[in-house]
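Page 42, continued from yesterday. The earlier attempt failed because a stray header line got pasted into the input along with the sequence. Redoing it now with the clean sequence only.
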Amino acid sequence: MDALLQELRTAVAERRMPPPRTRLALLETADPALARRAGRLLATLPPPSAEDAPVVPVTVLATATIGPYEQILRAQLVAAGVLPELTVGEHGSLDRELATGSFARSSPRFVSALMDESFFLPRDWSAAGVSALEEHVRARLAALTRNLPTGGPTLILHTVPMPAELRDGLVSRQARTQVTKLWYELNAALLALAEQHAAVEVVDLAGLLAEEPYAARDDRTHRYGDLPYTDGALLVLAREVRRVVQAGLGLSRKVLALDLDGTLWGGVLGEAGAGGVQLGGLYPGNCYSAFQRAVLRLREQGVILVLASKNDAEPVEEALSGHPEMLLRADAFAARAVNWSSKAENLSRVADALGLPPSAFVFVDDTEVERAEVADRFPEIGVVSAAGDPAHLVRRLLRTGWFDALSLTDADLRRADLYRARAERAEFSDGFEAAADYLRALKIEVEIAPVTPYTVARAAQLAARTNQFNLTGVRFGEAETAELAARPDHLVATVTVSDRFGSDGIVGALWAERGTRTWRVLNLVLSCRVLGRGIETAIAAWLSEQAAGSGARTLVGRYVPTKRNRVAAAFWTQAGFTRDGDGDGDGDGDGDGDGTFVLDLTTGTVDLPGWITTSERSGHE
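This time it went through. Structure tokens are written below.
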């Protein structure tokens, strides 16, 4: 504990975010006291020090005293690489803030609501009138539902543990069963709010506490200080809120890189042979089967799998294809680095081949030396230990929420196959001397269409997750995207790309304001996996044609630099736009960088690359 806190003190004193390894240790702590002390230290971390972290306004509203929740939540968010600007509402202000919407005046990105049973139960309830109690709870739920926001910040609610005083205060077994059923219905209705409201997320605190070593409540602190939850319960809630924020900001990982010996199976393949590794059957083989099953489910949800093992390729191929208990066959992996080279170097090559940064990776290995080497070379890679009792493998992998998404789209479910096709394109390109010949041979088609109720989630997901080709860094959420799409003075469109190897799915999105004389691009994002093919220029060509066809005289775009979007810096000038004289610039003298760029539509539109064909589809299909 002391070492971790000292690392945090040093980071705060040096006005910088704690390094990734320190944040990982903080992320995984199960000690509420440590989380509380860490959050108190990090409260003085100034925004200028967090150049590599998004500064995110977060408001906390509660039905009771929040206690150390502010500190614990701050520690969790900083651990995830987020610098929160926390605002805490007045004691018991949740009802009023939701009814008036006043919490939105401070423009938070997320609102965490800390609720206890007092929000739903009358202060004095009669054990002889269970029906009246049911009516009151349902009325309070209805009031909460009526006051939920339809847009703006993401409101994070949670299920509420049933208080022992309520359950045990009923001597009739029948009445106790009736009220318990009511409480389950209440929590089920709370969870359903996330399905009914785009701006609402709900975490299952009541369910999570059933598997945690923390009591939900301490009676003494509850009576003494109106503290509804123990510090441990608050840590559980803060973890889940952090996972929502992490997913909402697009900070989730895409790639799971796995060792073999001691990770996907027990034992050493080179010594035991393919038939001698521990997999399936009784303990410990059943632990590795359970782990493979969990990994396979992640792949089914779009996580890209990579093998990173120091082994000879032939016995590995034999084990993957021949072992009867093997769930992860060779075709489950988008890339395999099975050799005796450095794992850090192998992961670097795989990242280049997939076109993804190291920050998109999670690496699982049972050997401390290998994990340390990867962490030293690429501190941004999430590292998970597979050492120790294999019974804990699944929990270690999943508990952090590395791969969480607010929702899954068709592109997510197809991601593994899409990245395999990327590798096939790279192999296909070897047969061409000129890049233009290769691009023509790909037969690229770009389809641009207004968002629909079926694609709005994917557009919002691209806004949240895309960092490299993200022109302004504006993260339009799902509710905001739907709202803009419904306005006649705005355009929100998705971009689908396909070629001779198949469809990449929806890989881009744009948000634009349509004025009578001027169209303004609010943001344009494009997945890194299709960069280098001229897709972005094709989008600009299509957009300029749309604007000119509407009678507009100018098309205006903007580039706002971030730590990770330098690849898009020259986009506007390369497309034929001219820097507005009022732009800030970055001093490089080449016309790129931060600023506003203008295309005079009276003199022409952007030229479509000769190797691309475009089509337009109605958004009402």
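Notes: Residues 583-591 have pLDDT under 50 and may be disordered.
Reminder to self: strip header lines before submitting.
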